[in-house]
Amino acid sequence: METKTIFEKSVKGRTGYSLPKCEIKGDIKDIFPAKILRKEIPNLPEVSELDTMRHYIEISAKNHFIEKGFYPLGSCTMKYNPKINDIVNALPGLTHLHPYQPEDTIQGALQIMYELQEMLAEISGMAAVSLQPVAGAHGEFAGVNIIYNYHKSKGEKRTKIIMPDSAHGTNPASCALNSFDVVEIKSNAEGKVDIDALREIIDEDVAGFMLTNPNTLGVFETNVKKIAEIVHSVDGLMYMDGANLNAMLGYIRPGDIGFDIVHFNLHKTFSTPHGGGGPGGGGIGVTKKLVDFLPAPVVKREEEKYYFEHIIKNSIGKVHSFYGNFLVMARAYIYLKMLGEKGLRRVAENAVINANYLMTKLKTHFPIPYQRDVMHEFVASGEKFKKYEVKTLDIAKRLLDYGFHAPTIYFPLIVHEAIMIEPTETESKETLDNFIKAMIRIEKEAESNPEILKNAPLNTPVGRLDETAAIKNLNIKFEFSPNM
Question: Going by DSSP bridges, is the β-strand pair 237-241/206-212 parallel, antiparallel, or unpaired?
């Protein structure tokens, strides 16, 4: 085989540098094992452009996506992602970057990262931010590792971290991965941390307290300063799970109310798509005394030049290859630049208004165990439907027939038959009203014809799966047939 050029098109002028030509020389049989080479020319179909487009549009229509319908998922909601994010992120100057490039050829990218760090620090009241973690749970892991190393730097080996019984499931997992024992504290009648119970268990072996605020019930922890005072009295650190930060933007800064560490879900609070489990961004912010423990590298600026700072005194080291998910950062940067200070406040206002509107309209149909004004989400219960042999799962499945993605169910665990609903700040009143109508109709169906719910969904491409059988007989093997 003659020499073939695999990639030779210069991208100079679009990214400011040129990539070298990459050539493979020699016979292809000398490069790839014979067993993976085709013996015959593949019999590929010839398909028209129109048929190809129809094929993919038909497949996409079978899925549920944010442009198609409402996602009332609580806790990690898929919200609207502005199309300008995709337009800007498709620019060659961003897509053609490579992590091994010299710093002086990626000054624009470094400026985006630096300014995003600074904006997030200002929003959260933290002294510094690292963008390296690539998911909320990943940010948790890094933050808890900072707690571990903070105490280690003082010659201490503390073993316990406290968290409420309403915590996200990733919180105890992040602690366990960092060799901590989890001490669970019960919520009080208001769905908040029981201060008296906290006083009873606090001791010198407590490394920190992990708190989601607002919590997974949608309730704001009004005693957070008192909690911080108790934890700080034994030199423990306060960690805020920032998954629900969109309810506080522009109004409350975690650093001002006693938190030492906070992670940001760039893929939720700041508009990056997160369907299917990724990609994400879970950057972390820390107070002044923890800056030297941040994952390296972080972006610094000297006069007008940006650079990576790799040497940080007590850094926990890298927690991800290279520098994190850059295009996720770019999307968050665009979103923040568009919103500005007033826009951030509107995000929080709309998130709170939407959640309370839905809760008020539905509370007589679906009981709210912790009924009080909420922030961004609320948790209803489907327990009253048990007398019709209808479960929360059946309600969730039936919602699919009405064009809505199911809400989060069976979480938090402190609410029986939980239905966690978060409308987000980006949904219109018309959408919320349609969702309310569907929920009320489902309530009536449960009472008059529960079999409809038990067999739902009825009009989706795939019906209800036998989840028990799927777990016991897991088969994810893909078999190819020439006649497919």
Answer: parallel
pLDDT at residue 39, as a whole number: 86
- pLDDT given at position 5: 37
Strand order in the sheet with 284-286: 128-130, 284-286, 261-263, 237-241, 206-212, 160-164, 181-185
- Given this model, what pLDDT does residue 13 score? 41
Amino acid making up residue 96: H
Q: Which two tokens stand for residue 33?
A: 């094992």
Looking up tokens 């309209």 gives: 361
Nearest to 228 by CA among 262, 259, 197, 185: 259
Q: Quote the pLDDT of residue 17.
A: 45
Confidence (pLDDT) at 7: 33
Q: What is the CA radius of gyration of the chain?
A: 26
Q: Is 474 exposed, middle or buried (0-12, 13-18, 19+ CB in 10 A)?
A: exposed
Where would I find the H helices in 363-428?
392-401
Give the list of residues 6+ apart from residue 411 with CB closer than 8 angstroms, or none: 74, 75, 169, 216, 418, 420
Strand partners, 306: 301
User: Strand ranges (DSSP E) for 382-455?
Assistant: 408-409, 418-421
Distance CA 454, CA 464 (A): 9
Rounded Cα distance, 364 and 457, in Å: 25
Give domain 86-339's CATH architecture: 3-Layer(aba) Sandwich (3.40)
DSSP state of 482: T
Two tokens, residue 244: 């629900």
Rounded CA separation 291/314 (Å): 9
State the Cα–Cα distance between residues 27 and 83, nearest whole angstrom: 45
The four Cα atoms 44, 46, 52, 54 give a dihedral, to 10 degrees, of -120
pTM, 2 dp: 0.86
The angle at the Cα of 176, spanning 173 to 177, to the nearest 5 degrees, equals 85
Three-class HEC string of 279-343: CCCCCEEECHHHHHHCCCCEEEEECCEEEEECCCCCCCCCCCCCCCCHHHHHHHHHHHHHHHHHH
Q: What pLDDT is stored for residue 443 in this prediction?
A: 98
Report the b/e string of 26-40 with b at 16+ CB within 10 A: eeeeeeeeeeeeeee
Residues (pLDDT < 70) of the chain are 1-26, 75-78, 273-278, 476-484
Q: Which residue has the tokens 């950057």?
A: 283
